[in-house]
Amino acid sequence: MTSTTTSLPLNGAWKLHYGPQKKAAWDMIDPVIPAGFTTCAARVPGNVELDLVASGVLPTDLDHGDNIYSLLQFEKHQWWLERDFDIETLADYPAPTLCLDGVDTLASIWLNGHLVGRTDNMLIPHRLEINGLLRTGENRIVIALDCPILAAQDMPVDAGCFAMENNWESLHIRKAPHSYGWDIMPRVVSAGIWRAIAIVNMAPIRFEDVYLATLSVDPENNIARLSAQWTLNTHETFERGGTVTLEVIDPTDGRFLHRESVAALSWVGRHEVDISAVELWYPRNAGGQALYDVSLTHRDAGDQVRATWTNRFGFRVVELKKSDLIDSAGKGEFRFVVNGRDVFIKGSNWVPLDAFHSRDAERLDETLRLMTELDCNMIRCWGGNVYEPKAFFDFCDEHGILVWQDFALACALYPQTPDFHAKISREAEVIVPKLRNHPSLALWAGNNEIDQFYLFAKPGVNPNEDDLISRKVLASVCRRLDPYREYLPSSPYFSPRLWDEGVDNNAPEEHLWGPRDDFKSTFYTGSTACFASEIGYHGCPSRSSLERMMRTENLWPWQDNEDWLTHAVRPQPGSTKYNYRIPLMATQLQNLYGEVPEDLDRYVMGSQISQAEALKFFVEMFRIQKGRTSGLLWWNIRDGWPQISDAVVDYYGARKLAFHVLKELHSPVHIMLGEAESGQHPLIAVNDDHKAVHLSGQVTVASNPKIKFDAELAGNGRLHLGELPETPEFTIYEFEWIAGARHGRSHYLAGPRPYPISDLITYYQERFQREWVAVG
C-alpha cells in the first residue's frame, strides 16, 4: 500500500446523459454534452445498461429469454456521466490525484471545465494529477465515454489479424475480450465507471514500486532469502541522510523475524536479507500458508517518519519445470514445484463473474468460497476476462490457492503494430507491479490459445517469430518488473522446437476439448499431455435455473428453441458460431445412455450425471498417471451469465452434481480404477499430501466386498492396490477408505455402454440425497 492522507470517494449517485454518438468526445477540448441526449440517474460503480434498467428503459430481467439482445440498440451510443461534490478545506488536498480504479473504456475526463486526461483501457486503474483544479465549495466532474465500436472502425485491421465472428471490433480496444460475445458470455459492449473513483491527496513522500521477492528457501532450516526493492516518490528533491527500516513481523503474535535499518542514499533502494525461523508458504495440502507483515519505514535525517508501507507476504519459491515437447519416448514435463516439493494441481478456470463487471464485487466472496469447498490448489484466471481485484489474490494467499494469471488476450491474432505493442506494454506495466507481491501468484501467461489459433488462422506462420506481443513485449515487461516469477508465452505454449517437430499431441500442456461427444473417446485417452489447463464437459443447469433464464413457452423441448440458443450462448441474432453446443449435449447423452430423454427433468438429471462422470474420468485419468502427469484445471467453476455450459455451479449459485463429485475427487488421498488392460482394471491409490498416511478400506459391488486393502501410502505417492476383472455387464464398483483422519468414498461405472439412465439417477439420488437438487 502507498501512504496517503485525505481521500474523497466519488462513488454513489451520478447523472447520466446518453444518445447516438455524433462526435467523439476524444476530439473535444470542452465538456459539451450534445443537445437532445436523454438524461437519467446513474450509480457508480456501475454499468450504463444497469442505469437504463433502473430508469425503466430496459427490462429488469436482462438475463431472461432474449432480453439481453435489447442492449444491441445502444452499442453506438455515447455516454456522459457527471456529478457535483464539495470540498470543505482546499488545504486538505495539496497534491490531489483523481483515482479511477476502472473506467470502461474510451474516457475523456473534465474537472471544473478543465480537461484532465483521457483513458483508453478498461482493464487497468488510472491516476490523473489534478493540481490547481479543485476549488473550495462546489466542484463538478464530467466523464464522457465514447463508443468503442465506432472507434474501432477507424483503426485498420491488417491481413495478419484474426478474430472470431463477433469479436473483430475488439482487436484494438482494451476492453475485456468477452464483452463482444463468447461461447460462455453474452455480447455486452458496455460502458461505465465500473470500479471505485476517488480524489486522493498523495503524501508528499511515499513508497512506490515496492517489489518483494523470495530469492531462495532452505526448508530444512526454515530460512528464506528476501529481496525488497523500493522507490521513494517525493514532490521535492530527494534529501540524503535518512534511513529505510525493513521489518518482518509475524501477525499472529507480533514477533519480529527481522528488523534492520539501511541508509537512504538514493530515492531507489534494494536490500537482501536472510529471514530465519520462518514458516514457508505452500499451496493447500502441501504445507501451511504462513503470511507475514513486511513493512518499510522512511525516516529523515531528524528521525521523523516521512513514509510507511506495509504488505502481507508469504515466503516461497515457485518453479515451473517444463519441457519443449513430449518426445518420441513419451517423456516430457509440465509441473509446478513449490519450495522444492512437487505439487499435483487440482483446480479450475476462473471466468468473468458477471457480464456487467460493476456487479463483480457482490459475487466475488461467494465464488471464492467455492474454491476452498472443492479444495482447489490452483485457479487459472482466463485471458478473456478482466484482472481480478486485490481481494481475490488476498483470499488465494490466505487459503493456499496458486494463481495462474493470463494477460487479457484471448482467441485472436492481435495487431502487431508499434501502437498496439505500446498499449499492451503499458497495461502490463500497471498489472505486473499491482499483483507481483502476492505469494499465490505462480505464473504469468501471455495469452489464451493464441499459439493454437496460428494453426488455422495463419497456417504456416510460426508464433515464436510472428507474435511479438507474447514473445517480446510481455516477456520483456515480466523480465523487467517481476524477474523471479515464471512466464509462459501462451496457453497452450508451442515452443520453437515443438513447432518445428509438430504440435499434434506433442505439447506437454494442452487444452483438451476436441469433439466432446464421448468423455472416454480416444481424443482423451490417447492424450500424451502432462498437464491440462482446460478440459470440460456440458452439464445442463437445474430446472429451477432454466425456469429463471427462459420463457415458460420456451422451457422445453430444446430443439429449435430460441431461448436455449440464446443461453448457449448465442451473442446476437444471426450468429451461429456456438449453436452446436445444444445438440452436442444431446449427443453426449445418446452416447452414454443410448437415448436422449424426452422430458425435461430426466434430461437435466441425465446431463448432470454425464458431466459428473466426465469430470470424474478426466480428473482420475490424470491422477492415476501421477508421476507422468502433474495436474489439470477443469473448466469451469462458475458461470458469469445464466447459460447451459460446462460450469459446475451456475450463475444463480446452484451446484450441479459434478460439484459434489469433485469434492470427493479432489481429496488429497483418492482411490480409483483405471481402464481395463488385458481384462483387468488396476486399482490405484494416490496421495497428494506431503505426509505419508496409513490407508485401509475396501471395494464393494452391491455391498459385497471384492477387495480389501491395508497399506502405507507415501507422501506425494502412488500405490497399486490390486486389480478387478473387466465385467461384461453394467456394474457399479464402490470404494470406501480411511486415510489417517480422513474418510473417503468414490465409485467406478464398469461394463459396456449404454448405461441405464434410470439406475444411475437412482444411484446418484441416494448418494447425494441432501446435496443434489437437479429438478427443484
Concise synopsis of the structure shown:
With 776 residues, this protein is an alpha+beta fold. Helix content is 21%, strand content 32%.
Description:
By secondary structure, the chain is of the alpha+beta class. Among the domains are: 4-202, Galactose-binding domain-like (Jelly Rolls), CATH 2.60.120; 205-313, Immunoglobulin-like (Sandwich), CATH 2.60.40.10; 669-767, Immunoglobulins (Immunoglobulin-like, Sandwich). Helices cover 21% and strands 32% of the residues. The protein contains 16 helices and 37 strands. The strands form nine sheets. It has an eight-stranded parallel sheet with strand order 27-26-25-24-23-30-29-28, covered by helices on one side. It has a six-stranded antiparallel sheet with strand order 3-2-4-10-7-8. Strand 7 and strand 8 form a beta hairpin. Helix 3 (360-373) runs parallel beside helix 4, helix 5 packs parallel to helix 8 and helix 14 (600-623) packs parallel to helix 15 (657-665). The longest helix has 24 residues, at 600-623. The radius of gyration is 28 Å and the shape is globular. The chain starts with a strand and ends in a 9-residue tail after the last helix. The model has no long low-confidence stretch (mean pLDDT 96).
Attribute tags:
alpha+beta; 776 residues; Jelly Rolls; Immunoglobulin-like; six-stranded antiparallel sheet; eight-stranded parallel sheet; 16 helices; single chain
